[in-house]
Amino acid sequence: MPQSSRQSSQPDFDLVIVGASFAGLVAARTAAHRGLSVAVIDAKPEPGARVRSTGILVKEAIDECDVPATLTRKIPGVRMYAPNGAHVDLTAPGYFFLATDTAGLMRWLAREAARAGATLMFGARFTDATILTERVHLHGLDISARYLLGSDGARSRVAETFGLGRNREFLIGMETEYEETPSVDPDFLHCFIDSTLAPGYLGWVVPGAGMTQVGLAVSEGPFGAARKPNYEAFIKNIDHRFAFWNCEVLRKRSGPIPCGGLVSPLSTHRVLLTGDAAGLVSPLTAGGIRLAFQYGRRAASAIADYLLDGGADPGAIMARDYPRFALKTWMRRLWSVAPPNFLLNTMLFTPPMRALAQRIYFERKGAKGANSPLLSGSRDGVLQSAGF
Fold it and tell me: Domains in the chain and their CATH numbers?
């Protein structure tokens, strides 16, 4: 893994980023390009280890951060299945999703950050820190920084250490990577709506970059009632379509996906949260990679302005700029009720519901799919992140 040329005898940095996540690595690259001395610390042994994301990119994500085509697979449409097995195909002219070699993408982002001048410290765990007048001192690692950016995931240790807002609501997801499966139509993300098997969210089959990804996530029930994914039942329900029983299992993963919206407070003196740590995940769709790219870069720019040019406090800027998700939080509450399957079978492909699905999956400009009209409004893609 290439490192920057910064000498180990110089342990202090302008910016230390905790977490080599999508947001953290994009922020590191931006801050280093802006002239800051930057270190990224992460407990993982190397970039791309212990991937916890499906890694689907919506088209807008690559408008925020160009990624190599060799690490992606273009998917032009969505095939949405009702509980009774009926399905509808949704597409939009000029629109697509990108399945990714997620581990490879993380390694590429790390190389880009290092090439920009950031120091990458893998195998280094953040445990505690103290805010001094002009610096933040990280205990155990014996380094300090003029600013600390917490990009360390849904259960952020940085947030806990500094008494910042923490994610309280989660989807619980499970996913298996199989060898590339020819029975899966490669032109679609396959999404399964079923309140018995996937209450409050959905199941998915993704024709990925060199593999097939099969996952399921559920939300908490009304009033915080516990739910668990019944992954075996989901596989049994769809296996007649795809014959996964005959495919080699490559990897498995599971874990929480934040869905409660933006946390509060987001910052304190010389400390800011971004990415999943800040709750920058769409409550409705669990999409977070585009937001990680966009606001990781924006947070790094605000920190650079603050440290180099006496700009406004980055916490105040990002509290204004980060999305609030008010409508999507309300829609998350409704979907978590998990409408009964007979109702989904009846309503899912009616014109209003198909228009809503089109709005969720595709951008607003001129999209037409399954002969359904598109409702205006912004969109954040389902399965964009599905990060566990």
Answer: 12-50+102-167+261-328 (3.50.50.60), 57-98+169-256+336-361 (3.30.9)
